[in-house]
Amino acid sequence: MAIRNTSAIPKGTELETDICVVGGGPAGISIALSLSKSTNLNIVLLESGGLDASDADQALNDGANVGLDYYDLTMTRHRVLGGSSHKWAGWCRPMDELDFDGRPGIPDGGWPISYDEMRPYFKEAARLCQLESEQWEPAPGMDLPPLYLRPFIGGDVEIALWQGSPPTKFGIVYRDRLEADEQITAYVGATAVEVLSDEDGQQATGVRVASLRGNEFVVKARAVVLAAGAIETARLLLASTGANPAGLANENDVVGRYFMEHPHLVTGRIELYPQGTHNRPMLASIDKGFSGVRARLAMQRPAGAMKVAYTISRERQEKEHLLNFSTHLRTVSPVNREESDAYQAFKLAVGNLRSPKRMIKQIRDRALPEDSGNLVKRLVKGTPEITQVIYHEALRKPTELALYTQSEQSPNPDSRLTLDPDRTDALGMPRIKLDWRLSRIDKQSIMGAQEIIGAQLDRSGLGRLIPEPAFTEDSDDWGPGLRGGHHHIGTARMSTDPKRGVVDPAGEAHTVRDLYVGDTAVFPVGGYANPFLTTVAWSLRLADTIASRYQR
What we know:
Layout: E1 2-5, E2 14-22, H1 26-38, E3 43-47, H2 55-59, E4 63-65, E5 91-92, H3 97-101, H4 115-128, E6 157-164, H5 170-173, H6 175-180, E7 184-188, E8 191-197, E9 204-210, E10 216-226, H7 230-239, E11 264-272, H8 284-287, H9 293-300, E12 306-312, H10 314-320, E13 325-331, H11 341-352, H12 356-364, H13 372-381, H14 383-395, E14 400-407, E15 416-424, E16 430-435, H15 440-459, E17 463-467, E18 515-517, H16 532-550
Parallel strand pairs: 1-7, 2-3, 2-10, 3-7, 4-16, 10-18
Antiparallel strand pairs: 5-6, 6-12, 8-9, 9-10, 11-14, 11-17, 12-13, 13-14, 15-16
Helix pairs in contact: 1-16, 4-16, 11-13
């Protein structure tokens, strides 16, 4: 029907609809569009942010990190129509089949649904993400970087592929469809502050909405779908205390628990053997000077629509009880990449604008990085640091390469978010406290996987593995480089057992009828792949479930 601002809705209004979707990011937009296409249901889509980002909207995200050092909570989620799709670099890969199946020795691992059940939704998600290819595994004849071919892989060392989206900004690319759709009414500036239920908290009945302009209203619905991301979905459930002081669907104290991320950090370095020794072949990215610049740049960020990383075979993971794992080679720079604002701006620019052809496509698809003007200012201000990065990462022949790891975190009920009863936001919602924790198994698994890859690279003649100091000992120390990927997973996990999860395999809350979760909060495990594509696929599967249950 339209995209409307909540300022036009009189305070105290009660709207009625069939399905109320909370969250106008990739998951919420995918659910709304899918339901409209397959049913005659009316859908209300609530987005807390506006059509464009604003500081006032972002301030609603503020909270406290009380566990491992993590990103500023104000900036790691995005309140704008399109949500996180306005800030991502576009890399897509579905979770692996073994992530769904689970592995021996990994507690609370696996999904209660199979990869085959998700397969058709991965295909549709790839279309929504505007991917040019769905090739996730290497195939004969593919143009792959030499360091990811034999002899550098083999045995238990394999490779995985990511495909690049433009990247698709859902709030821009699909805005016209939302505005023209007669069954969807999207409200921006509409923050869900409570999920309403019957007196016993056993059936969801709607959502209470507030805005920064001061007006509140209610959306009554036959079904409520939460798609606000793992942090905000859990926050909303915990804050919905009308029927249960512990929060809606939280009879078993699982909401907010099992928060997971993908640890990102350099875990080791490969001290390169000189060319001509150890039977190492000549490699442009290592052995050539100026003519090797392009190969070294491609090592940091692929120039095309695909990137590659080393992984460990399923058989070896199961044998040694390893978590899923990926790592890729990159050059070593004296600039602290994680702390440097200039480097982060450079990374965002290079990650988004990977080639002239791709840049033209991004301009056409309105997929340029958000706030490009500010990005340019950061690049100019950081020119000295960026010059160092370019010299060390592109112009200079390397003597060592870093292993940059993106790994799975094991499910951990003590890694969680809770509400801060002493701090509220501008709408009166309790702010969150995030206690991100990693387990000893997470680090041990990385060390084991890295040893396997290091041994293969040594046998191939590339070089000798030198683990980072924190990864030479069995301790809780992760070193100074630990970061996440802005990948928020868990907090309303899926399970067959209500005592170990919040929703059932269909995505409906175990203890609250007509309440569903359509985002990363339901993931029981996170694998190593960026969660974007799996999130969209899950939201499409959930849309089919809702269509079958509520179609008039």
